[in-house]
Amino acid sequence: MSYSQHDMPKSEPKVAWTKRARKAVYRQIGHARRAAAEVSPPWLVRIFSPIYDYLDMIFADHGIFRVLYANRHQISPNAWRSAQPWPHQVRYYAKSKGIRTIVNLRGVRDCGSYRLEKKACEAHGIELRNDLKVYSRAAPSKEIILNFQSYFEALDHPILFHCKSGADRIGLVSTLYLHLIEDVPIEQAREQLSLRYGHFRHAKTGILDHFIDQYIEYKNATGMAFLDWVEQVYDEEALRQSFKSSRWSSVIADRILNRE
């Protein structure tokens, strides 16, 4: 599939078009894979499907950068965070860390990374949860945030949270897990959103920091608890309007590091 300059939107930055073009190519590859599976004998599908999934994970999902560095860190005695895990890393979490639940913040995806993770979780008796949707460049959803505490408490621990790179969405979830479940002060818990994990607070992903900043400022003035602030004060649109990102930090996070 090819694109001409006339296909490129005039009002959007080149990085947005590049990502859209790349995703379109991946969709076409996925369509070709499914079409081939429909006409191929089952034994051939069993042989080549895992090969395709690994290639898709390595190149399309940038898994090559996560082979040696999983961006794995312990949040609390019963909770961990990481980047998208490889099957051998899922096995490690099950056998060495006793992980019983993996929460995939990326959701269900038609890609090799998801299929390989799902099979690995099934093989090692881990529950894979795909029902916690968090975005790295959008104002956090009030409805979702208000349900975080009950969601966390219902999980079968020990748990692992992961997104693609283990930097942004996972930083917000880890921050709120520590604050809501472990009763860690928000000022300390927010260290989960830091450059140490590859998070850029001045890029578009910094809207997550801005969300926490807004609460801390209000808390210092009123003493209001976090969930009360989310329910009674927090305004998603106002947060979006008041946040400004740095162009160059966004280029690094979006174009060079290919963050979701």
Task: Provide a descriptive summary of the structure in words.
Helix 1 (14-39) runs antiparallel to helix 2 (42-60), helix 2 (42-60) crosses helix 4 and helix 3 (87-96) packs parallel to helix 4 (112-123). The radius of gyration is 20 Å and the shape is globular. Mean pLDDT is 84; it is low at 1-17. The relative contact order is 0.11. The protein has 260 residues and is of the alpha/beta class. The chain is built from 12 helices and 5 strands. A 5-stranded mixed sheet has the order 1-2-5-3-4, with helices on both faces.
> How many strand units?
5
Report the β-strand fraction as a percent range.
5-15%
Q: How is the largest sheet built, in terms of strand order?
A: 1-2-5-3-4
Order of helices and strands: HHEEHEHEHHEHHHHHH
Low-confidence stretches: 1-17
Set down the secondary structure blueprint.
Blueprint (H helix, E strand, L loop, with lengths): L13 H26 L2 H19 L12 E4 L2 E4 L4 H10 L4 E4 L7 H12 L3 E3 L12 H5 L1 H7 L4 E4 L6 H12 L5 H4 L17 H16 L3 H7 L3 H7 L4 H10 L4
Parallel strand pairs: 2-5, 3-4, 3-5
Antiparallel strand pairs: 1-2
Keywords:
single chain, 260 residues, alpha/beta, 5-stranded mixed β-sheet, 12 helices, 7% strand, disordered N terminus
How would you summarize what this structure contains?
This protein has a five-stranded mixed β-sheet, with helices on both faces.
